[in-house]
Amino acid sequence: xxxxxxxxxxxxxxxMLLIDVTIVNVALPDMATNLHTTFSSLQxxxxxxxxxxxxxxxxxxxFADLVGHRRVYVAGLAVFAASSLACGIxxxxxxxxxxxxxxxxxxxxxxATTFALLNASYAGKDRGVAYGVWGAVSGAAAAVGPIxxxxxxxxxxxxxxxxxxxxxxxxxxxxxxxxxxxxAADRTRRVDAIGTATFTAFAGVVTFALIxxxxxxxTSGTVIGCLVAGGGALVAFTLSQRxxxxxxxxxxxxxxxxxxxxxxxxxxxxxxxFAALTYVSIxxxxxxxxxxxxxxxxxxxxxxxxxxxxxxxxxxxHGANPGPIIGGGLLLIGAxxxxxxxxxxxxxxxxxxxxxxxxxxxxxxxxxxxMSSTAMGAVPMNRAGMAAGxxxxxxxxxxxxxxxxxxxxxxxxxxxxxAGHGTPxxxxxxxxxxxxxxxxxxxxxxxxxxxxxxxxxxxxxxxxLQATFYGAAVVGVLAGLAALVLIRPARVxxxxxxxxxxxxxxxxxxxxxxxTDEEPLAV
Length: 523
Known about the structure:
- By secondary structure, the protein is mostly helical.
- The chain contains 22 helices and no strands.
- α1 packs antiparallel against α5 (93-121), α4 (69-88) runs antiparallel to α5 (93-121) and α6 packs antiparallel against α13 (292-298).
- The protein is globular.
């Protein structure tokens, strides 16, 4: 039993950092009411965490090589715990968003060291078992997040979705300090500080522009200026990777069409499959009046379908051509989004989502498990970990950008619908509805007007959700087609042949991305 204590310590950390991506969704309406937030603040509660996690993931991997993986994992747990407490006691939206940024940094430190610590603790068959258990726990975290969030929010308070991390962190810290020896730092490694800074600037400024465009419009000087600045940061990042001595990403990998195909798929999958669920949760609770637990359970068919099919992919499709698997999965996700858009209407209930959710679940079960192993198999062995780290970073960035883009589509479509039906101050009303304030708006009206306005709200929000699903569908279908065209079967079998196998001589960024082909279905 003692030999599995390191695995338990790692799984506890991974469970916390991954569940905190999805656990927040069902608590958003209660947050909006309690903190009197704007819609953009709600977006940042989600995006702040995912964005920092994505931006720091590869850079922290190199830093962990330099100072020691155990030390960075422990520091990540401590930061995660402190920021979770800050989230739970936040008096306003500004403090909550700031704490979520810090929480994302702690999560990046934990995620970036997970595989190095597992590899140091296990070898041979035990390593394969450890990876399998870790993958199952990580996938379960993503699946049960909305349900756990619903239970805590309904039974206690939304703040407990953050407080629940504290006892888990204490246990994880105690285990980590007890079972992991201090690993030797590799002083030959160097941190790509310029690359980390420029990539963070690019991701943050572009996401800020996408969220602000919802309120200011795409022609706003602020939005245009931020997009230009983001483009400049991307150019600076590219140059730093081209000429820097300790680059996080070897740009030569982008000449490999299979790697590019996987990277495109990774940049699309969380956008297409999961980003719209945030706005579905707002609709279910603030418009349809469902409880937080009920809203969390609605997504269960997606999680079950994904989990079931991912098991088949992991066991039966080793060595198969990954292009049709990843591309077909993305096409299924796109088809699910189309189905949700077609079935939603002014009088629709939660059951209208189920066919699309099942299709999306099957698609994620196909697409996600083989992404990292495909990327690793498509590149030279000494770049395998770097490739997997880039894929994991792309997936987290995909979610952050998806929240911003689909949020703008959601609000804009609601505003257009309200304006077309003669609603005064349509833009302000749309932002209130997007922020989960439907019942508050109805409460300000005379009783005689409420039935008519309630019908308009149902129609407007359903129309907004249609826009988000169709946007997700476009991304999923285009990425699926790109994967089918770009990803080749060559060299993939070698990567898929040994679950849990570790690429030799991985680059500094590798710890953020080392994975088996049974990669967790984490958002």
